Amino acid sequence: QVQFVESGGEQVQPGESLKLSCIVSGFDFNRYAMSWYRQVPGKGRGLIATIGSHGDDSYYSVSVEGRFTITRDNALNTLYLQMNGLLPNDTAVYYCNKRWMTREDENYWGKGTLVTVSS
């Protein structure tokens, strides 16, 4: 069974850092490009960072580029997101999933982890 377990979210002040983790099970993690997504209440889930299956390339949305870093440990089936210089606009629930999803894959999401940036 496909599972994503995100963790590491908490409330922080602007400018602080957090590192999120996502433990993946149920498919061959090291075969897939993986991504972090985030969702603000009342809005859709948006893609913010992607990493290749071997971890040798990464891509970021304009809103996080230069502040966030996506990494992965294929031996641990774990995806990470280091977030530096957090802004109030980064407040959202963060999810991990495959970058390229089939219709079947779209049925599988974790509970996400809430990041709140507020002074």
Describe the model.
It contains no helices and ten strands. The chain is mostly beta strands and 119 residues long. A six-stranded mixed sheet has the order 2-10-9-4-5-6, with no helix packed on it. Strand 7 (68-73) and strand 8 (78-83) form a beta hairpin. The model has no long low-confidence stretch (mean pLDDT 96).
In short:
The protein is mainly beta. Helix content is 0%, strand content 46%. The strands form two sheets. A six-stranded mixed beta sheet has the order 2-10-9-4-5-6, with no helix packed on it. It has a four-stranded antiparallel beta sheet with strand order 1-3-8-7, with no helix packed on it.
Helices and strands, with pairings:
Blueprint lengths: L2 E5 L3 E2 L5 E8 L8 E6 L5 E7 L6 E3 L7 E6 L4 E6 L8 E7 L14 E5 L2
Parallel strand pairs: 2-10
Antiparallel strand pairs: 1-3, 3-8, 4-5, 4-9, 5-6, 7-8, 9-10
Secondary structure tally: strands: 10
Low-pLDDT runs: none
**Kindly, what is the distance between the CA atoms of the first and last residues, rounded to a whole number of angstroms?**
40 Å
Shape: globular
With helices defined by DSSP (H or I, 4 residues minimum), what is the helix count? 0
What is Rg?
13 Å
**Strand-pairing-aware structural class:** mainly beta
> How much beta, percentage-wise?
over 45%
Estimate the mean pLDDT confidence: 96
Give the biggest sheet.
6 strands, mixed
Binned, the helix content reads under 10%
Strands side by side in the biggest sheet: 2-10-9-4-5-6
* Strand and helix order: EEEEEEEEEE
